[in-house]
Specification:
The chain has 188 residues and is an all-alpha fold. Strands 1-2 form a two-stranded antiparallel sheet. The longest helix has 26 residues.
């Protein structure tokens, strides 16, 4: 609670006048583990959690994951995956490999919802089954990681959740519309 007040995050309860009082809450800060239900639903591979009596747990998180005393550099992706408790980090689309995979999956036509009504340009995201697309995406991540263990960073792909793919789809449609407009104006 004291940390929440210091960083300007409003807690779920009134802040007492004296912050020296410690109040136990279920609120957490930072990178949290992906819930088991989402891990199963979207075919993410969980990391093997250490359920050893030797390793103490703090709020069901192995204590060694809460601190790191090392001078060895750690990849941001490894760090995220550790905190999210998944084999690969769950991040937005950002590598060339991911842009290419997104384009090829959408252009395959397998993830569109068939409808008799044509959507307005701003609602094209409603025509994509992001749940199905996410499952396929994450299956491909698992396959590629097994087949090509040391991929170049630019071609790597990482886990996604439906909201991330939907967000990228909106940007993708927007850029294609802008690109099409630029081509039509240039040819006129």
């Amino acid at each position: 609670m004291k940390l929440a007040a210091e960083v300007g995050v409003k807690p779920s309860f009134p802040i007492p006048d004296v912050l020296a009082t410690k109040i136990m809450t279920d609120e957490s800060f930072g990178i949290i583990a992906i819930p088991d239900s989402l891990v199963a639903q979207y075919h993410l591979q969980p990391t093997k959690s250490a359920e050893s009596p030797i390793i103490p747990l703090v709020d069901n998180i192995p204590a060694h994951l809460l601190t790191r005393l090392s001078t060895q550099p750690l990849s941001a992706y490894v760090f995220l995956a550790e905190r999210q408790r998944t084999m690969h980090a769950v991040v937005q689309i950002h590598t060339t490999g991911e842009y290419n995979l997104f384009k090829s999956l959408l252009e395959s036509g397998l993830y569109f919802i068939t409808s008799t009504k044509a959507p307005a340009a701003v609602n094209t995201a409603r025509m994509v089954n992001f749940e199905k697309l996410t499952v396929k995406w994450n299956e491909i991540v698992n396959e590629w990681a097994a087949m090509i263990p040391n991929q170049p960073i630019a071609t790597r792909i990482y886990y996604k959740l439906p909201v991330q793919l939907e967000h990228h789809h909106k940007l993708w449609v927007q850029s294609r519309g802008t690109h099409a407009t630029l081509i039509n104006t240039a040819s006129a």
